[in-house]
Amino acid sequence: MYTKLKGFAFGFVLGACVVFLFMFLVGIVLWFAPTSQPCLNHCVGFGKIKCLEPSIKFSSTEDKLSVAFINGAGTEINIIGVNASSDCTVNDVNAFNKTVLEAGEVMRFSCRGDNLADKQIGEPFTVTLQITYIQKIAGMAVTHREEGIIQGCAE
Predict the structure, then answer these.
(1) CATH no., domain 42-153
(2) Are 87 and 117 in contact (CB under 8 A)?
(3) What are the boundaries of each domain within the chain?
(4) pTM for this predicted structure
(5) Are the CB atoms for 56 and 43 separated by under 8 Å?
(6) What DSSP string runs through 6-39?
């Protein structure tokens, strides 16, 4: 009976070692396997003028990038300059649908046609956007400049 128990224990230990080795190898394969990160549309770097991330859309079929922004400065602002670079090149305040915004008001930025890089569905894009605006504070006109980056994937 002792020899049967001894053989059982040896088989059990051997089986546990095989299972452990298999799990170890699977772990190494998964560790080094390439991962495909989903492409998320997002903005970084803007201050008082807030980018509304769910609004970011780069349409490869319409050849258009559109992003909504909200005036978070707390007072009325007047946009006097726009400079976009990288996958969108625009130097015109008319890229926004309105240039005078009350506090909390939303405006839309658009880049289209020849000003926009040609991207296929799923390809990443990056746009650096600089916005210059005037804000009246205590009766004085103060000029501010904000810069941010808009990134995502073409749809």
Answers:
(1) 2.60.40
(2) yes
(3) 1-35, 42-153
(4) 0.72
(5) yes
(6) HHHHHHHHHHHHHHHHHHHHHHHHHHHS---PPP
